[in-house]
Amino acid sequence: MARILDGASIAAEIKREVGEEVRALTARGIRPGLAAVLVGSVAASQIYVRNKVQACAELGLFSELITPPETVTTEDMLDMVAALNSRDEIDGILIQLPLPPKVEAKALLDAVSPAKDVDGFHPINVGRLQAGRPALAPCTPAGVIEILKRSGIPIAGRHAVVVGRSDIVGKPAAMLLLHQNATVTICHSKTQDLGEVTRQADILVAAIGRPGFITPEMVKPGATIIDVGINRIDTREEFDRFFAGDAKREAAFARRGSVLVGDVHPKAFELAGAYTPVPGGVGLLTIAMLMASTVRAAKMRRGL
Length: 304
Ligand SMILES: NC(=O)c1ccc[n+]([C@@H]2O[C@H](COP(=O)([O-])OP(=O)(O)OC[C@H]3O[C@@H](n4cnc5c(N)ncnc54)[C@H](OP(=O)(O)O)[C@@H]3O)[C@@H](O)[C@H]2O)c1
Prior knowledge:
- By secondary structure, the chain is an alpha/beta fold.
- It has a six-stranded parallel sheet. Strands 3-2-4 form a three-stranded parallel sheet, sandwiched between helices. A two-stranded antiparallel ribbon has the order 9-10.
- It is 44% helix and 14% strand.
- Residues 140, 163-166, 168-170, 187-191, 194, 207-210, 228-231, 263, 282-283, 286 line the site of NADP nicotinamide-adenine-dinucleotide phosphate.
């Protein structure tokens, strides 16, 4: 039986530690603070941001939610970021993506002070991460490393294969695994004989954005599978492709009309030594890591 790497309990452990750190800092007059900027009314973004603000409240961080209208201009957004950069009670600035198409996302992300870039998207932090210097790292890949470490999965000397090379997940995940002394291979849509490569993985990280893409024949028996993918499926045909005969999911599908599936086919998990489920795996770590990143930013900015 493959071991399930439970994102909920690991996230709770990290939040507990962060909460303790926030209490200790607050007692010294430093209350870490996060500004969350949410433009427009994308339903999923609203839920993510609400959860982030709620986590701040739970752990004792200061938070401020800023909600410019969909019609906001890049210039207005740049002014807002400049104001947040200069406010001392704000340690982290989070700009929820996606932004409306006419807002220049790159210009905006580059305008966030690297010291407050708790998502780790600023080129300065990307460069620092690559150079092995202290950096604020993207939260989802940082969560992947926490899951592996806290579950006692050896990384050093293992072959880690990351499928996906996005700036948000794939590339930073590969870099963080490299810093943990894994031998890292990065795959993408132009990779030839993908299954040949993924079958060599001791640790397989799937960050593709395609439901159930990693099938059993692409997995080495006993491998650790980290499924970063979050895909919503809402047709009976897709449901049956992944979850036929799964009574619990069937009930959820009947209730909600959709269910989540990762980038790994559920049958592939049966071959794994350990794996992160979807939901209940990597996704739960992202907010915990954002809280940790905000506290880290608060300390780094003050030389602590
Ligand atoms: N909190 C969380 O848990 C969290 C956070 C972020 C993202 N996610 C999820 O993680 C997944 C990936 O997100 P992302 O932002 O990294 O996606 P993305 O920017 O769309 O990148 C997808 C990557 O997958 C690669 N890819 C696509 N089709 C492929 C194929 N047929 N074979 C091999 N590689 C292929 C792409 O290759 P090319 O570069 O060649 O196009 C690209 O590098 C999504 O399901 C997303 O919802 C979860």
